[in-house]
Specification:
With about 300 residues, the protein is mostly beta strands. It has three helices and 24 strands. The strands form seven sheets. It has a four-stranded antiparallel sheet with strand order 1-2-6-5, with no helix packed on it. A four-stranded antiparallel sheet has the order 4-3-7-8. A four-stranded antiparallel sheet has the order 12-13-14-15, with no helix packed on it. The radius of gyration is 24 Å and the shape is elongated.
Amino acid sequence: MLCVCLIAGCLSDDHDRSRALEPRDLWFEASHQSPFIGSLRADDVDLAGVASISYEIRPKPGALARPVSVSYAQDALRNRGIFDKATGSFSLPVFGLYADYANTVSLHVRYEGGLETRFDIPAATAVLPESLGAAANSIVRLPVSAARRPSFDYFYLKYLDSPVVYDIDGEMRWANLVPATAHSILLVDNHFLAASTEGNTVYRLQLEGGISEFSLTGGNMVIENFHHNVTPGKAGIIITPSGEVDGVYKYEAFVSEIEPNGRVIRDWDIGEIFSRHMRDNGDDPSNFVRDGVDWLHINEAAYDPHDDSLV
């Protein structure tokens, strides 16, 4: 189940709009970025007294995955730009839709006094873009059943053009094309991080559809690219770049931990760590640690909280 939860506050002050949100006000607007993303729109409505708004995407007949369900509290409606009090415009992001399908989005509006309203909005989506064709050809070799189902309902795989979320029924349910090739992927705080294979760029892919980017700063490396995986760290995110340190090229033998804004918390030059240990123990590292070539080939670096180590 995918969920956005923010602390409630006061949505709006007294104002003159006379109409609460009703089914006749709403329509679905598809996204040009992805067939899995869209928005529920309305104009000239009043959300005073609304405590939260949530939606659920109706599963296809026979589906075993629990429905995508997302909730926005009062502060989220205002601070994320979903409702504009000045104009009365309402635009609620919807993600996790089936592509090329006549979806039904069930909207649930809960008011502060306890009143609740529910209504269904049709949401027809486009076909998959050609660039996601390989992802669409994934094969489910062991179908789930009511008697045999995993503990989760959704998972993601990484492709060159986008991380792709599937449900356990084998349906693609989310993808958002990255501006550049990026296959170092991590889902964190309701968005994906996708690190580029060309240059010092990491993309944030919001589940709701927005894309932004940042670069690593404050580290020891002049970064050429990122490779393999991104994983949670002790205080931030563990990422594996390749590039130059003091004019020496480090090829897939360097690890950084970064803050969400890209500032480097700490670096590990694995070749230097190995070399120092070998020299301290009377060994010659020159035939083992070979900067400039793929002597180590890090596939993943992970933080282990059990002994406070990097594996």
